[in-house]
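so my prof wants the structure for this chain in the tokens format not the other one, which i didnt know existed until like an hour ago. anyway here's the sequence
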Amino acid sequence: MQTSISYRWVVVLAAMSVRTIVYGITYTSGIVYVIILQSFETGKAETSLMTSLVTTVMFTAGPLSGRLLKTFGWRITAVSGGLVAGIGLLLCSLSSRLTFLILSYGFVTGFGCGMTYMVACIAVPAHFLGHPRQKIAVALASCGTGVGTFVFSPIIQVIDSTYGWRGLFVILAGVALQFCIIGLLFRPVSPSTSETCEKMTATWTFMRNPDFYATHLGFFLTTFGDSIIFGHLGEYVETLGLTNDKGAYLYSFIGISVVILKLLQGAVLDNRVSVFMPMKLAIIFFLLGGVATAFLLLSEEYSVLVIYSIFFGANTAANGGAIVVGILETYYGFENLELTFGMYLGVLGIGNLLGAPIAGTLFELCDSYTPVLIMVCVSKVLSCFLLLLVYKVCPGKPTVKSLEISSPKKEANSKIYFGGVVDNNAEEKYPLLMEGNPPEYSRTGNTYSDLKILEKETIGGVHSNFSLEVVENLT
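here's what i got, hopefully its the right format
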């Protein structure tokens, strides 16, 4: 069954819905923390463990979820994730001890959300493979992260005041079970795409490339810095003598900035002049986050904090969505996206787990947020340096071709252009198809013989018997 153009956008809506629910459940854990703290009358340290575990487990479930996707497919993985998350939240409602609640909420719910979240991250770029609006589709789906956090926060407070904390977990369990329905919308890609993808056997050869570790270390460092800001911005505002309401407004500014910048970044990537644009944007926006944080060391005015929140949101938007998908596709191939994106999520989990606690310890030792802010700046700059190193120095970097394809089954003078990404150490990479004007690539490519073409196959809806012509190989 051929995937229609309209159904691709159904997949985008499904992925956005999944992200809305996942982030609505996991990124409102700070509110749940206060509710449980008051209900169980336990210590802050042990109670806060449940809030850090749920996001950590959700992200670190990525590598295993990637293998599940390869083995069982999207639908089974998404539906199973919904069942696991729903069961975990139901178990929370039955908890009478904090330890059982931590296991149910942190591990079971977190892992279930991670399984379905992985499907939502992979399905959109797969359905839009070669489509000229792939990156804006990925960006639109990723906007669910901000929507979930914004919408669920007041809803959770209302439910708790009406039904209590046990009723809250029962209702959240029902919401999580919606993954089982939404997951059915993640139908496989069209046969033509599947046949082509079969030629792209996923391998673990990218694990032998030093640039893979440098890239993910860069992702870890920027996530480490981001988690510090998310975890301590509210308390930092209090140390400046400002009210809690003003601190809450800053998070709202961050969320709005994230949504807008994700869409803008996706639009830029769809009109990119180089397949290396995702890496360039990541370097720019991560550096922006570090430089903006440095300005907090110079001023404590609330207006500066508002401006900082907007720039920090732009930096956060780059750590995920279309930019990360673009980097992983370009350097390690679309056929490995389930594996590489799963590892990326694992790195995010570790960064989120370590950032805020280390910053809290440093604050207690120094009784000041100045060294904490310096640590954020350093982590951001080091992240940019590592990604720049991958872009400029590391071996095995992809090279680019721009080719022109015409088909006798198309109208006269109608052509399709595509840019293929070729790794010097890899056997084959699937070209990214697009109709219209050819992109102007800025990197030097290999000779034509180095780029293997899949002949006599249905590719992107255009049939076989292609005539091939090298259009340009720009420097």
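also thought this was worth mentioning. Residues 144-176 form the longest helix (33 residues).
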